Amino acid sequence: MSDVTAEGGHGAVPTGPEIPVEPKASTARRDWPLYEVFVRGKRGLNHVHVGSLHAPDDEMAVHAARDLYTRRNEGVSIWVVRAADITASSPDEKDPMFAPSGDKVYRHPTFYEIPDDVPHM
Amino acid sequence: MHEETVYEALDHAHGGEGQWAFGTGFDEPLAGVDTTVPAGIDPADLGAYCLMLGDDALVLCQRLTQWVTAAPELEEEVALANCGLDLLGQARLLLARAGSVGVLGRSRALATDSIPDEDALAYFRDADEFRNSLLVEAPNGDFGQTVVRLLVASTWRLALFARLRGSRDPVLAAIAAKGVPELTYHRDHAARWVLRLGDGTPESHRRTQAGVDAVWPLLADLFTATDVETRLTAAGVAVDPADVRDEVRDVLTTVLERATLTVPGWPEEQPSRGRAGRHGPELTALLADLQGLAREHPAATW
């Protein structure tokens, strides 16, 4: 669990004597892990990536995601995952990974005639 | 159809005007609500009661927004500001209700005609005309004390609003119905922090316990009904604050014990000073911040 102390803001100027300022807080604070946030919108079928945030643990990450990414009616469901837990393809492997599909037009179902009354195609 | 992002989906759902971020798709909380004062209820009492609940929300909102630019993390800053904005929405509706039944105090003498009632009440009353409880006006203290106060205030307000949904005043009932999910979230958010800080490091435990000890005496101001509340409770409009005492005590005790914090003895209850307009100098300072701009530049827009 991280220590949580006020340290007078992110470069902004604290105002008034009531704003608590901790002179030595930055040495006490440990960094919170980075989370990636996925939101499913009201009409969307899938969760889609909307951004990232820092949080002390998984539960608080969901809470923070609610406050940061669904304030304007965007979502009905939230997933968060630690960025460190994501395994991604490497940019160096871009060609071996993706280039071979570029000239294989037969993988696309474009040779069928789609009847007019089939929706969502 | 699958949209690229939730934001595009949202835009699509609102006619593709690209302006969903500016407030489309929201429900009007008082849509279809009959605003006539129910028979047999003194409008002056109803307005005074709305001021109590509205001022609680307005003042606590101002306290929460004092963390903006000063919160421990950006994410938490937004969370506290969101709670504040929810409360501001409740305050607007409640102050507007007070104004609509003619309870405006001395504010109308100072505010120009173009200023709506809720703004006149927020910006042009002095501290002695505010009816908020002492709980919400107390300074924030550190982050631990802030989340303890938020826990206490939201627990108490949620217990009150849950019952007010059955108020005979349809406007109060609608405002309460809108507020319950908001306050549930505030209470949940505050409780999560109290659990993590109380059961965290020795330093976070020490500071959160100090926050509990600082906030606890303010409970004395909450549970004794004023004459207005007694009359309105009998009329089926208000909730006697004494009726929510047990629920508040149970919830707070549960959270604090799970957070390994010591629950102080229940303070000796007394007639509310805040509801009588007897506030501390902290409220005067808070109002100077809140009201300064509106008083210097009445009806300013930007």
What is the terminal separation of chain A in angstroms? 49 Å
Please give the number of β-strands of chain B. Answer: 0
**How much of the sequence of chain B is in beta strands?**
under 5%
**Number of helical elements of chain B:** 12
Textual characterization of the structure:
The complex is a heterodimer of chains A (121) and B (302). Chain A is built from 3 helices and 3 strands; from the N terminus they run H-E-E-H-E-H. Chain A is α+β, with helices and mostly antiparallel strands. Chain A has 2 domains: 1-30, no CATH class; 31-107, Phenylacetic acid degradation B (Ubiquitin-like (UB roll)), CATH 3.10.20.520. Chain A has a 3-stranded antiparallel β-sheet, covered by helices on one side. In chain A, a hairpin with a 6-residue loop joins strand 1 and strand 2. Chain B starts with 5 loop residues before the first helix and ends in a 6-residue tail after the last helix. Chain B has helices spanning 6-13, 43-65, 74-100, 107-110, 117-123, 134-137, 143-164, 170-198, 202-215, 227-234, 245-258, 281-296. Helices cover 58% and strands 0% of the residues of chain B. The mean pLDDT of chain B is 92. In chain B, helix 3 packs antiparallel against helix 8 (170-198) and helix 7 (143-164) runs antiparallel to helix 8 (170-198). Chain B is an all-alpha fold. Chain B has a single domain, classed as Ferritin, core subunit, four-helix bundle (Ferritin, Up-down Bundle).
